[in-house]
Amino acid sequence: MSRRAGNPRLVKIHRSYSVEEAARQLAVHKNTIREWIRRGLPTIDQQRPTLILGRDLAEFLELRFKQRKRPCLPGQLYCIRCRYPRAPMGAYADYLPLTATGGNLTGTCPECLTKMYRRVSLENLGAASGELLVRMPQEGKHITDSPEPSVIRDFARE
Question: What is the spatial distance between Cα 105 and Cα 30, in angstroms, rounded to a whole number?
Fold first, then answer.
């Protein structure tokens, strides 16, 4: 679970944090913590120093992460640059196996022309692909099974 700023796993829920301590713990600037307080992060009271309960901070970060999450519907891949799920260009996707049971669906974003991805298991490939035309990888031929001669060949030795 990758998060840019504010990983709730780093927060000790039974501890109180000052703004500076919370910023240090989460590796963010203290103005970021102050902005989160303005956006609804609860504090213990209105006195100085401003104290934040660890449990409240972790819940705030989890909620913030869940609100920003954009799950892909069937037939959609996630564009890294646009940060938005959409159908790939031409409704085509390639399946790239990573393990024996799963891999990535990849395609091209129609908006910004960059790579789009979606992690999917083989068993859920049909449901995840929706109306997409998915190209599966072809088994590589062994060089001796090929009817064409090899380009890498030393004819002078023969």
Answer: 39
* 136 contacts 95 by C-beta, under 8 angstroms: yes
- 8 A C-beta contact, residue 71 and residue 85: yes
Amino acid sitting at position 110:
P
Amino acid at 22: A
Q: Would you state the pLDDT for residue 141?
A: 58
Give pLDDT, residue 156: 60
Closest among 89, 97, 8, 121 to 55, alpha carbons compared:
8
Residues in the chain where the model's pLDDT stays below 70:
1-5, 138-158
Query: Is residue 103 classed as helix, strand or coil in its secondary structure?
Result: strand
pLDDT in tens, 73-89: 888 898 888 888 999 98
pLDDT of residue 23: 92
Rounded CA separation 65/3 (Å): 8
The domains of the chain are located at 8-68, 77-135
Is domain 8-68 classified as CATH 3.40.225?
Answer: no
> Is the separation of the CB atoms in 53 and 16 below 8 Å?
yes
**pTM above 0.85?**
no
Give the rounded distance of the alpha carbon of 88 from its chain centre.
17
Query: At 92, is the secondary structure helix, strand, or coil?
Result: strand
